[in-house]
Amino acid sequence: MGHKIHIRICNRLCCRFGIRVLIAASVVIPSLASAQNQEDSDIGAPASSEAYVDRLIDDGNLELSLTSEVVRVTNTTGNLRSLVAELNGARISSTSNADSIDTSPFDNVQQEAGVLVSARYQTDNFGLLGLDAQLGRGSRPDPFAVANGDRWTGLFELTSSGLPLGSGWLIDSALGTTSTPLIGLFDRQARFFLPVTPILGGAVTFDAYRPVAPGESFSDPKPFASFNLSVGEPGLLGGLLLTDYTGLSGLLVSAGGQSELSPGLTAGVQAIAVDDTRDPFAVILGSSDPGGDTRFVSSRAIVGSMGLSRQKFRLQANAVWSTRSSNGVAPSEYLADGDAHGASLDAVYRSGRSIHNGGVYYFGPGLTWGTSAILSNAFGAYYRFSTSSQRWRWTFNIDAIDSVDSTGSSGVVVNADFRRNIDFNSAVGVNASLRVANGQSAGQVLGYVDFETGFGSSRAEAGWSSDRLSNLYRIGFIQNWSLPQSLPAGSRLSTQISYQHRSQSDQASQVLNRDLTESADSFGIAMSAGLMPIKDTTIDATFAYSSDASATAAEFFGPFQSTGVSFGTLTSQQTESFSATLVASARLSPSLSLSGTYTDATSSLISRFGIPLFGSPLGLSDDQLDDLRRSSFRLRAAYLTLRYSISAGRPSGFMGAREYPVGGLGKLEGRVFLDENRNGKWDPAESGARGIVVILDGIQAVRTDDVGRYRFEGVADGTHRVTVNADNLPLPWFIEANDKEGIGEPFSAEVEIGVRGTTVLDIAALQRP
């Protein structure tokens, strides 16, 4: 025993003496070398009578050079927190004029004013808490009804995100005006879309995460299992700047879940049920049956999905079934009662820079999801291809679609696009489309050149579009200007000008033009500009004007609008339009800002239907007909927002190594004591060992206090390893691994930390008998 103590003391003395020698050498040797170098440099050089002085410009009191005089000073103490409060006002007025129709019932004004509050607070162990509330008053006219009087509107939502439960489980929840959650599988395919439904109620989502593998990064973890549930009254959202919630009555229940069955194989299901709710289409249109009764509907729907992912390949299959019933009052014009079903299969394959995407689908008529209609009465297939390199980019798409009951549209659409970078400042590209729909075909080709000059970046483009009734040729030029530096900061300017020529076929209907054929020219111009006239103030303005002298209905032009001659005949044509928007914002203080928007848009139309009857045997002249069919429309909108926002705090860290990529925190505490009776438990009569280093996961360490106590605050939940450095333990006491006394193995213990809990670990020091 004496030899061991002597060797230990010698080792400590040698270590301390060696460290002091190294420190002295690190100071003395560079000093000697510097002195020698100074002597060498002074040979043949004049002696300097003044020692070097480090001089600061203006004594180091230079002001900060910032584009803004308003500097936000962030308070970094405490937990993360933020508050946003807004005062909002909006007004929209529309005015229409038609010589042959009384449009006064459609001219109305929508306006609102209110306050919005949004607050967030990051807790240590209860997730991110949030509050969103709105209160306003304004008019809410129905789309097809005369404006009603002003009314109060309001909503609120309480949220909690990332509430830890332990073992890799988190909860997201919401209460108030929220929406139904969906499983993540539906975001990973191209064709099948399920809408979320606004509800007044509650929603909760459970996510589970697997333990972190050694060396694995968890910067963006994904749950391997997820489950959701929501209950409430379904509704509709509207409003201008503020959100307006309109309840539909009834009850909605939604539930779903998904889980990874094996590596790369995930399955999930989502279901929704709605009982005795008002038909949303009748509410939107403001319609009711002649008897005055309200139409109520109920629906059920369920969808299952399974996805298989490999390194370069992904395959997903979906199947959906729904049923809908109503109370028999005035059947809906948009959704019929009864059962419906559908399915889709989507695949993605990646090979280097190339991506292949394709699938097939079938959706029967009348599919619904809750209170919403989804893709229905359609079946078909699609294929997408894209590839790119440093110079080339290619894309190719083809879609084929048909209606299940032969009452809808059918056809094929093909689109191809390529772009080649000639150098760093120039590129060329071509886009071509072809559509064959309902027995008609239409196509277009657009080519462009991108280049840069001393005036800025430019694009020149030329296109041609053709269908059975007309041909259109178009050229355009877009310029993003490089402005002089003498202009105010933030100045920008871009312009666009275009010219188009349309020729109408002699096979056009006489309803459109008695001359059968026509050639017309039109042009368009647009500008977007912005600047910062004074510090912390920005102004942006855009305007656009277009003129079309053609008498042909616009629906006859373009590959994506020529779907039916009869429909195109009974439409209207825009002959002239102008729109202007002005946006201004100013930062009044680090926390206060003011912004406003004003928009003014006008357009002229020629109606292709509703030609009035006349009694004169001679009829009306062409000019008189055009006057009767001519109309105009003007929309003016103004928005104003006063915004106050503050944020403070910093993210709270955690101690130890995480077992799960996300989770909560707990505490680890205990004491290191001299176990005189060797029972492994601390007794009140036993002394604590001060100055002992307790190490958590080999990352963080603390020392015991005068009575041997230690504590780790904010330890990540899960399993952790605790070790000690007992160099300060008085002799002849020692700490070794439990149940391995005398072997000399260092102490190590595993502890389990629970969320919002305290784990106690006492460490006993023994003395040899």
* CATH topology heading of the domain at 665-767: Immunoglobulin-like
Q: What share of residues are in beta strands?
A: over 45%
- Which ranges are low-confidence, i.e. pLDDT below 50, for 5 or more consecutive residues? 1-49, 64-70, 143-147, 288-292, 508-516, 551-573, 608-617
Major sheet details: 26 strands, antiparallel, barrel
Count helical runs. Answer: 4
Q: Which range best describes the helical content: under 10%, 10-25%, 25-40%, 40-55%, 55-70% or over 70%?
A: under 10%
In short:
The protein is mainly β and 769 residues long. It is built from four helices and 38 strands.
Describe the 3D structure.
The protein is mainly beta and 769 residues long. It has a domain at 665-767: Immunoglobulins (Immunoglobulin-like, Sandwich). It contains four helices and 38 strands. It has a 26-stranded antiparallel barrel. Strands 30, 33, 35, 37 and 38 form a five-stranded mixed beta sheet that branches. A four-stranded antiparallel beta sheet has the order 32-31-34-36, with no helix packed on it. Strand 9 and strand 10 form a beta hairpin. Mean pLDDT is 80; it is low at 1-49, 64-70, 143-147, 288-292, 508-516, 551-573 and 608-617.
Topology:
Layout: H1 2-42, E1 81-98, E2 109-122, E3 128-138, E4 151-166, E5 169-179, E6 198-208, E7 225-238, E8 244-247, E9 251-262, E10 265-278, H2 280-285, E11 296-309, E12 313-326, E13 338-351, E14 354-363, E15 368-369, E16 372-373, E17 378-388, E18 392-402, E19 411-423, E20 426-437, E21 440-453, E22 456-466, E23 470-481, E24 492-504, E25 518-531, E26 537-548, H3 565-569, E27 572-587, E28 592-607, H4 622-629, E29 630-648, E30 665-674, E31 693-696, E32 700-703, E33 709-716, E34 718-725, E35 733-734, E36 748-753, E37 758-760, E38 763-767
Parallel strand pairs: 30-37, 30-38
Antiparallel strand pairs: 1-2, 1-29, 2-3, 3-4, 4-5, 5-6, 6-7, 7-8, 7-9, 9-10, 10-11, 11-12, 12-13, 13-14, 14-17, 15-16, 17-18, 18-19, 19-20, 20-21, 21-22, 22-23, 23-24, 24-25, 25-26, 26-27, 27-28, 28-29, 30-33, 31-32, 31-34, 34-36, 35-38
